[in-house]
Amino acid sequence: MKRLILAASLAALPLCAVPLAANAQQLSTAPVVAPGNSVLTVSADGRSTRSPDLATFNAGVTTQAKTASAALAENAGKMNAVITALKKAGIADRDIQTSNLSVNPVYGQPKRLADGTTEGDPVIIAYQATNQVQVRQRKLDQYGKVIDTLVNAGANQVNGPSFELEDSDGAMDEARIAAMKKARARADLYAKAAGLRVVRVLTINESGGWSPQPVLFARAEKMMDAAPPAPPSPVAAGELEMRANVTVTYELAP
Predict the structure, then answer these.
(1) Alpha helices in the chain (DSSP H)
(2) Domain span including residue 246
(3) Is the pTM of this model over 0.85?
(4) Residues 101 and 87 in one domain
(5) 243 near 209, Cβ under 8 Å?
């Protein structure tokens, strides 16, 4: 009986060792460099530019009345006119999204005494309602005209634009390729100076994104003060710069 138990125990040992060996293999993920070779890590950036094809902005209405319900009712009427104007200007329903709807009390300032102190507590003197939508404008040449149309329809809050690329993958890939070419050129330069040559890429790490250029935009508050009809508000879309930063580790050999 003892011999049978011992044999069973010994037979189970290889089964326990197999997962341990597998785990040991998983822990070793670093690239293996050939004996006598060395490692070089360089960083480089690549860039590409594109003209934006999408502008995002916020537009809305703020109203004030003695009661919250009155402020909200007045706001709803004016905001409906703004949304109608957006649609008439060619903005699709899918490109209009409510971003803020709020009602808040407006407090009066306490009476200030001669010694600089105040008397009494702040009291509610009115209520302010705000309704804003986020809009995506696809026809950039019509942007200034759309903003003017909104202001004429009753919008008293306009903020933006933020220029974007609807599909930035191609531009980012172009920046990545430029970054990798620059990294390889630097690696070849360093290797040659050290009397070595680049054998292969060991690791690649990437970071990056896009950076918008400054734009010109006339805010709605200024446009509302203009009495006579004026040309559409000037807007310069400029260019978007896509950036990719790579850190590449190479194996060098004699």
Answers:
(1) 2-27, 68-88, 143-153, 169-193, 220-224
(2) 30-52+166-254
(3) no
(4) yes
(5) yes
Residues 74/65, Cβ–Cβ less than 8 Å? yes
**Over 52-74, what HEC string results?**
CCEEEEEEEEEEEECCHHHHHHH
Report pLDDT digits (tens) over 198-247. Answer: 999 999 999 866 554 444 333 333 334 444 556 777 778 888 999 999 99
Name the domain count of the chain. Answer: 2
Tokens at residue 222, please? 């200024």
- Integer-rounded Cα radius of gyration of the chain: 33
Q: Which of 136, 164, 192 is the last residue of a domain?
A: 164
Q: Per-residue pLDDT tens for 105-132?
A: 999 887 777 777 877 778 899 999 999 9
- Clarify whether residues 60 and 154 are in a common domain: yes
Are 55 and 144 a contacting pair, CB within 8 Å?
no
Residue 242 Ramachandran class (φ > 0 left, ψ -120 to 50 alpha, else beta): beta
Whether residue 68 sits in one domain with residue 34: no
